[in-house]
Design goal:
The chain has 3 helices and 8 strands, in the order ββββαααββββ. The chain is α+β, with helices and mostly antiparallel strands and 214 residues long. It has one domain (2-209): paralog of FGE (formylglycine-generating enzyme) (Alpha-Beta Complex).
Length: 214
């Protein structure tokens, strides 16, 4: 894990989707976050301990797929992620923690800076049907805090409920926010650090995984 110091940053974007507005200042207390997404091998230990249940397999899911131990666990729902992090003595990050960890304090668009994505992340692999990449394969895409795969590979569950904006009067749902873009994305806008999606807690996508914080 990496310790991330207390800091203040501008959360959201004036150049993204409506649910990224309004841009607002957030102060995040110090915390720790996993350097990479939770891997198949790590999740397997929780299953072997009879504390986690198996995720889905097949259709680009990494569970029960040979040679994928160091790939991110995917096809896991929000409860899978929450249970694993608790078993590991951690928790899911808040949405504010996640965006701060990805953007730092300098307002960068992507974890590595403001330049458009190219070879800094695992993405644009839908046409080639390659699926995810081993975690940590793209060190040039590291965030200011040294976190890897904060863009691409798999979207990541957070603990926060999804609301349609950051406004005082906003509509919130039972969905949970996921962040970071995935291996199948082809548009740069989807791997921006402020881009957000809401997913039903029971959703199990082949481009959806998680990392833990504490």
């Amino acid at each position: 894990m990496v310790r991330i110091p207390t800091g203040t940053f501008l959360m959201g974007s004036d150049f993204g989707d409506a649910d990224e507005e309004p841009v607002h200042r957030v102060t995040v207390p110090a915390f720790e976050m996993d350097v990479t997404e939770v891997t198949v091998a790590q999740y397997t230990r929780c299953v072997d301990a009879a504390q986690c249940t198996e995720p889905d397999s097949g259709n680009f899911c990494n569970w029960a797929s040979p040679g994928r131990d160091n790939h991110p666990i995917n096809c896991v729902d929000w409860n899978h992620a929450t249970t694993y992090c608790k078993w590991a003595g951690k928790r899911l990050p808040t949405e504010q923690e996640w965006e701060y960890a990805a953007r730092g304090t300098d307002g960068r668009v992507f974890p590595w800076g403001d330049s458009d994505p190219a070879s800094q992340l695992c993405w644009n692999r839908w046409r080639t049907k390659e699926g995810t990449c081993p975690v940590g394969s793209y060190p040039s895409g590291a965030s200011a805090f040294g976190l890897l795969d904060m863009a691409g590979n798999v979207y990541e569950w957070t603990s926060r409920r999804y609301c349609d904006s950051y406004a005082a009067n906003r509509n919130c749902t039972d969905s949970r926010v996921n962040r970071g873009g995935g291996w199948s994305d082809e548009k740069p806008s989807y791997v921006r650090s402020s881009f957000r999606l809401g997913g039903n807690p029971t959703l199990r996508g082949n481009n959806l995984g998680f990392r833990c914080a504490r």
